[in-house]
Design a protein that fits this description.
about 45% strand; Thiol Ester Dehydrase, Chain A; 2 helices; alpha+beta; six-stranded antiparallel sheet
Length: about 130
Protein backbone atom coordinates (compact mmCIF):
# COMPACT_ATOMS: atom_id res chain seq x y z
CA UNK A 1 0.00 0.00 0.00
CA UNK A 2 1.34 3.41 -1.00
CA UNK A 3 1.11 6.02 1.77
CA UNK A 4 3.43 8.64 0.31
CA UNK A 5 1.69 11.84 -0.82
CA UNK A 6 -1.63 10.66 0.60
CA UNK A 7 -3.87 11.63 3.49
CA UNK A 8 -2.36 8.77 5.49
CA UNK A 9 1.08 10.32 5.03
CA UNK A 10 -0.17 13.82 5.87
CA UNK A 11 -1.82 12.65 9.11
CA UNK A 12 0.92 10.19 10.08
CA UNK A 13 -1.40 7.17 9.99
CA UNK A 14 0.52 3.90 10.24
CA UNK A 15 -0.88 0.43 9.73
CA UNK A 16 -0.11 -1.95 12.61
CA UNK A 17 -2.11 -5.03 11.58
CA UNK A 18 -4.23 -5.95 8.59
CA UNK A 19 -6.08 -9.25 8.65
CA UNK A 20 -9.34 -10.48 7.22
CA UNK A 21 -12.07 -8.72 9.17
CA UNK A 22 -9.80 -6.62 11.42
CA UNK A 23 -7.45 -3.66 10.98
CA UNK A 24 -5.36 -1.77 13.54
CA UNK A 25 -3.67 1.58 12.84
CA UNK A 26 -2.14 4.41 14.82
CA UNK A 27 -2.14 8.18 14.37
CA UNK A 28 -0.16 10.80 16.28
CA UNK A 29 -1.88 13.70 18.01
CA UNK A 30 0.31 16.55 16.78
CA UNK A 31 0.18 19.80 14.83
CA UNK A 32 -1.12 17.98 11.74
CA UNK A 33 -4.04 16.34 13.57
CA UNK A 34 -5.01 18.99 16.15
CA UNK A 35 -7.69 21.66 15.75
CA UNK A 36 -6.80 25.34 16.43
CA UNK A 37 -7.47 25.01 20.18
CA UNK A 38 -4.88 22.28 20.64
CA UNK A 39 -7.05 19.16 20.79
CA UNK A 40 -7.32 16.20 18.44
CA UNK A 41 -9.50 17.29 15.51
CA UNK A 42 -12.67 15.26 15.13
CA UNK A 43 -12.12 15.22 11.39
CA UNK A 44 -8.73 13.56 11.88
CA UNK A 45 -10.41 10.85 13.96
CA UNK A 46 -13.02 10.35 11.24
CA UNK A 47 -10.29 10.16 8.58
CA UNK A 48 -8.52 7.50 10.66
CA UNK A 49 -11.78 5.57 11.09
CA UNK A 50 -12.64 5.61 7.39
CA UNK A 51 -9.06 4.65 6.54
CA UNK A 52 -9.10 1.47 8.62
CA UNK A 53 -12.58 0.53 7.36
CA UNK A 54 -11.55 1.04 3.74
CA UNK A 55 -8.29 -0.86 4.11
CA UNK A 56 -10.15 -3.63 5.89
CA UNK A 57 -12.56 -3.84 2.99
CA UNK A 58 -9.73 -4.05 0.46
CA UNK A 59 -8.42 -7.10 2.34
CA UNK A 60 -11.77 -8.84 1.75
CA UNK A 61 -12.45 -8.05 -1.92
CA UNK A 62 -10.91 -9.02 -5.25
CA UNK A 63 -8.86 -5.91 -6.10
CA UNK A 64 -8.45 -7.09 -9.69
CA UNK A 65 -12.22 -6.74 -10.21
CA UNK A 66 -13.47 -4.46 -7.40
CA UNK A 67 -12.73 -1.19 -5.67
CA UNK A 68 -14.26 0.32 -2.54
CA UNK A 69 -15.29 3.76 -1.36
CA UNK A 70 -16.60 5.10 1.94
CA UNK A 71 -20.39 5.39 1.64
CA UNK A 72 -21.39 6.61 5.11
CA UNK A 73 -19.62 7.29 8.37
CA UNK A 74 -20.67 8.49 11.79
CA UNK A 75 -18.58 9.21 14.84
CA UNK A 76 -19.07 10.02 18.49
CA UNK A 77 -16.15 11.90 19.99
CA UNK A 78 -16.30 10.90 23.64
CA UNK A 79 -12.99 12.15 25.05
CA UNK A 80 -10.53 14.87 24.05
CA UNK A 81 -6.79 14.41 23.62
CA UNK A 82 -3.95 16.94 23.31
CA UNK A 83 -0.92 14.82 22.46
CA UNK A 84 0.42 11.30 22.16
CA UNK A 85 -0.94 8.58 19.89
CA UNK A 86 -4.36 7.13 19.23
CA UNK A 87 -5.01 3.59 18.00
CA UNK A 88 -7.95 2.59 15.82
CA UNK A 89 -9.27 -0.98 15.83
CA UNK A 90 -11.76 -1.76 13.07
CA UNK A 91 -13.81 -4.95 12.95
CA UNK A 92 -16.21 -5.94 10.22
CA UNK A 93 -19.84 -6.21 11.36
CA UNK A 94 -21.43 -6.97 7.98
CA UNK A 95 -19.62 -8.53 5.02
CA UNK A 96 -21.94 -8.25 2.05
CA UNK A 97 -21.40 -8.37 -1.71
CA UNK A 98 -21.95 -4.65 -2.30
CA UNK A 99 -21.37 -3.15 1.16
CA UNK A 100 -19.46 -3.79 4.34
CA UNK A 101 -20.15 -2.21 7.72
CA UNK A 102 -17.27 -1.65 10.13
CA UNK A 103 -17.16 -0.87 13.85
CA UNK A 104 -14.18 1.32 14.76
CA UNK A 105 -12.97 2.18 18.23
CA UNK A 106 -10.23 4.77 18.65
CA UNK A 107 -8.42 4.68 22.00
CA UNK A 108 -5.50 6.42 23.65
CA UNK A 109 -2.36 4.84 25.12
CA UNK A 110 -4.21 4.02 28.36
CA UNK A 111 -7.04 2.28 26.53
CA UNK A 112 -9.46 5.15 27.13
CA UNK A 113 -12.09 5.50 24.40
CA UNK A 114 -11.60 8.67 22.36
CA UNK A 115 -14.00 8.05 19.48
CA UNK A 116 -16.41 5.35 18.36
CA UNK A 117 -17.40 5.17 14.72
CA UNK A 118 -19.36 3.06 12.27
CA UNK A 119 -18.46 3.15 8.60
CA UNK A 120 -20.29 1.66 5.63
CA UNK A 121 -18.06 0.95 2.64
CA UNK A 122 -19.44 0.47 -0.87
CA UNK A 123 -17.92 -2.22 -3.10
CA UNK A 124 -18.17 -1.54 -6.82
CA UNK A 125 -16.83 -3.18 -9.98
CA UNK A 126 -13.66 -1.64 -11.42
CA UNK A 127 -14.12 0.11 -14.75
Amino acid sequence: MENQNSLLDALGIEMVEIEKGKVIATMPVNDQTRQPYGYLHGGASVALAETVASIGTTALIDLEKQICFGLEINANHVRSKKDGVVTAVAEVLHHGKSTMVWDIKIKDEQGELICISRCTVAIVPKR
